[in-house]
């Protein structure tokens, strides 16, 4: 990434010959320039899967820690005295953590993956550790928890931006979309894990448990179970940090493709290119608006479903399956995109059309007094899960389209800008939730509106594949 990604000696056998001059150039017997060897193919290493695993686990842990409190907000209020403002703020630290996003872009561009990943994982260890400090004073404990969530939020720019950079650095062109999907969607899978772990481990105080178990749902018991979750997450984050410290190289010894070996624009020129590229701004908004709205909506899903009499456990299962479905379909779509190159816009149109229909169904279902649509567990499960599948699975496809559109802008910078915009939209919505957290009907209407806007932007977008052209055409 950036000008120093590879040395001149590494680039020379992979890069195409310079363009011909005005005079005719002699051709060799194989059709290439006379006296010049044809470009060599890149080399991939088996260790790329280990690097992908470590990075994906880091993203999984970051998503799990970020979404700890939303699925168990009722229990957290009873155990730690959290208010509705506190719950919204605990989720809000995620987008706030994107404030130094541009610093992490610069660090990745100049120092590479290893330094960036180690700094990110160390912030996560500190954040998870702060949440586990046993303090009897609840006010101090709440401040420590908020500080831990902020440090974990600071890890967001790396785990959400670096997936396309990692896939270009380590994987061949026919594996890049798949690697991007795995590395980026594991963060969402971590958020889904919080929907599963929290409600199953932490008892709910909403009175849905059997009366014989009422004594086990006391405040101290709930607090002990929450602390057990916090200690388990701290141990997992520490283990991943130790593994990355032991082995996480910045790049392979030899580039895997022509695009990986090519020089990129500088940090400053990259931003000038992005801000002046109208096509990039179109797809950036098409990504940032619906994904930002959906992320904020998912973070407070329990609060949204409470007025329609959905329990904490049911809300957790709905959130879990919506994200898991999106991750599975997203990886499958990315693998499909690796087989049929040049069809990213078509795939996005299908996914966004499905997201628009599913979000409209969910919103109208919640207005059962007006629409008279049946409000059942099956309809809520189906509409939420379909919405998560369509939107979450679009993330790696969007990332690949960003990189193709603005190449040779470094992958971390182009994807960093759009994820920053997405978190801005998410932060604005959570800001309104923080101060107007008694009414959620307007939030449901934001979902179909944002999906429809994104669909229209993609329809008007003219796609191009500059990086793919360099790998497939120029290297032949």
Automatic annotation (TrEMBL):
It catalyses: pyridoxine(out) + n H(+)(out) = pyridoxine(in) + n H(+)(in). The gene is SLC49A4. SUPFAM superfamilies: MFS general substrate transporter. GO terms for cellular component: lysosomal membrane. This is Solute carrier family 49 member 4. Belongs to the major facilitator superfamily. Mediates H(+)-dependent pyridoxine transport. Gene3D superfamilies: MFS general substrate transporter like domains (1.20.1250.20). Keywords: Glycoprotein, Lysosome, Membrane, Transmembrane, Transmembrane helix, Transport. The chain crosses the membrane at residues 49-66, 87-107, 113-133, 185-202, 228-248, 278-297, 317-334, 346-372, 378-403, 415-436, 442-461. It is found in: Lysosome membrane. Residues 1-35 are annotated as: Disordered. Its main location: membrane. CDD domains: MFS_DIRC2. It comes from Pipra filicauda. InterPro entries: FLVCR1-2_SLC49-like, MFS_trans_sf, SLC49A4-like. It is a multi-pass membrane protein.
